[in-house]
Each structure stands twice: as C-alpha cells, then as structure tokens.
Amino acid sequence: MSTNPPNEQYDRTVDIVRHAIPRMSELKIPITPVNYAVWFEYLSETNQDLRQAMDDLLSREAPITNEEMKRLYERYLEERNEKLRSAKSALGQVISALMAHVSQADGHYSEFSSELRGVADELSGDVTTDNLNGLIDRAVRATNVALERGAELKQRFSLLAVEMQQVRGQLARSQEEARMDALTGVFNRFAFQEAINDLPQFAKTDAHTPCVLLIDIDYFKSVNDSYGHLAGDHVLQGVAQKLKAAVRGRDIVARYGGEEFAILIRDTPHSGCHAVAENVRVHVSQTFIDMPEELSIAEPICVTVSIGGAWYRDGEGIEPFLDRADRALYRSKQNGRDRVSWDG
C-alpha cells in the first residue's frame, strides 16, 4: 500500500479517476467495471507486470479489444481464493461509485459553465445598472452552487479514495495469503514456482549464480506412524522456522511437498550457498521440537534432513535445473541421509 500522506493519496486517486475515462474513450475501450479496474490499476503504476503488458498493447497499431482487456483482468487482477473474491466485489462497487460521481461531476460543471456563458452573452449587449446587478447575482449564485457541489463531490471522492486504499490493502493481503502455506508459515509451491520462473531474468543481473536447495525431512513417515499426524505437523512447523532463520531477505523458503522444502538463494557466492545448506542441516539436527501437552508425548522429537543443491546454468530450463537438485537430494538419501550433496 502507498506510504504517501492521505492528501497525496486522495489527490493521486482523483487524478487517476479524472484521466482514466477520457483516455479510455480516446482509445475506444468500452467503459465497463472490468475495463475500468484494469485501466485504474495501469494508471496507478503499482502493478508493473500489468503495466508492461498494457504498454505492449498500446505500442502496436491495432486497437485494444474488449477480449484483450478481459484477459489482462483475468491474469493480473482476478481472484485466487474466496477472500479475494470478496475483495473483488468491493473493488467493483467502489469503481462503479467512482464512475457515477465522475459523470455527476461533469454534469454539475457543465451547468455552471453554461450559466456563466449566458451571463457573458448578456454582458456583450446593452446593460443597465439593474441588469448588471442581476447578472452579477446570477454569476455569484452559479459560482456558489458549483463550489458547494464541488465540495460535496470532493468529500465523496475523499471517502471513496480511502475505501479504494482499504480494498487495495485487502487485495494485497489476500494475494499474499494465497501464496503462503497455512501450516508452516513459509511460501507454498505456487509462490516458489512464481519466483523460480523469474530466475533466468535475475540470473543475468545478479553478481552470483542462483542456487536452489531441495530439503527432505528424514524418515518423516515414521514420525507420523509413531506419534500421529498432529505431531508430524509440529515437526514441519519447527523445521520451517529453522529454514527461515537460515536465509536472507531476498531468498525464498517454500514448502515444496509433504515433508519437502525448497530454498531459492540469490546473489550469493558458492561458499555462502554451502554455508546456508550446512547451517540448515546442523541446526535442524540439533533442534528438539517440543510437543503440546494434549498430545501426551513426553519427549521432544528430533529429526534430521537430507539436502540436494544445484546452481543454475545460463540458458537452462527450469525443470532440468530442479531435476539436478532432486538428483543431488536422492544421493544424500542413498548415502546415509543427514547430509548435503551438490550437483555442479
């Protein structure tokens, strides 16, 4: 969400509203709630992927079709879960209200302009003192009416701008929740796949080659069989916390499968990647995970992890890259577990 002061947020939102509809009309884009939502997001410059896609469409000679606008909406603004559907509905209501008020504002100010033009026309002819006083009264009344209506509309815009920011925050939270694993609090596989799909791009700009670690909890099935699935859930949570503590801000920790995790390490020398992997392995093996009293498990549970790592190769596909890390993980398991193996 924007960190600009409230007045700046209001001015920015109103500015976007004022320019959106004329620009859409100029490009012959139908003014529907879906199209307006896409255009508002584009002009707000908060969604860079959407902005790039829209710029690509605008750079060509052919007009943007309604179907293309719908695809932009579905790709960049469509809901991913139930919470997001609720946010989408709220956003649609705000947009409809904004469009109605913009139309209403145009009507008010066109009436004001017409009245002033009428006063000016009469001033161009013969005017007596009485007529002049009357014209002045008309102009003052029209100005006051416009100012009163403008103040009313400004208040409505201000409230709608605040509501728009609230909806934007709800959308952002829902999108973030859709990318998190509810049990462990780390990213889910969907979010990891999103991040790793961008790997070829940041591999070109980072000073060091990206690295991926695939991490599997050793003999996790025996934990579930011996203590139950609730105990297994606590083990997953404990391991996830150790993984999160081992990485920096730009690195990604995700739950990759049932008892398997993945770490995507960016812009770190090979020695640093080795250190992260070994740090994870050692700290997990030294951690005793306490169980809740209701599970009646007297002793804390300790587990180990097997790790496979690989570094990205220029021009390599994502699947081959992950496959190399998976083969390294398999070697760790074959060679006794509780160890780190590398490919490349």
Order of strands in the sheet with most strands: 2-3-1-4-5
Shape: elongated
Radius of gyration: 30 Å
Give the rounded overall mean pLDDT: 79
Question: In terms of per-residue confidence, which ranges show pLDDT below 50 for 5 or more consecutive residues?
Answer: 79-85
Largest sheet: 5 strands, mixed
Going by helix content, strand content and strand pairing, the class is alpha+beta
Order of helices and strands: HHHHHHHHEHHEEHEHE
Into which percentage range does the β-strand content fall?
5-15%
If you had to describe this structure to a student in words, what would you say it looks like?
- The protein is α+β, with helices and mostly antiparallel strands and 344 residues long.
- It folds into two domains: 6-177, no CATH class; 189-343, Alpha-Beta Plaits (2-Layer Sandwich).
- It is built from twelve helices and five strands.
- The protein has helices at residues 6-26, 33-44, 48-58, 66-76, 82-123, 129-178, 189-197, 199-205, 220-227, 229-245, 270-285, 318-334; strands at residues 211-217, 252-255, 260-265, 305-311, 340-343.
- Strands 2-3-1-4-5 form a five-stranded mixed sheet, sandwiched between helices.
- Helix 12 links the parallel strand 4 (305-311) and strand 5.
- Helix 2 packs across helix 3, helix 5 packs antiparallel against helix 6 and helix 9 (220-227) packs across helix 10 (229-245).
- The radius of gyration is 30 Å and the shape is elongated.
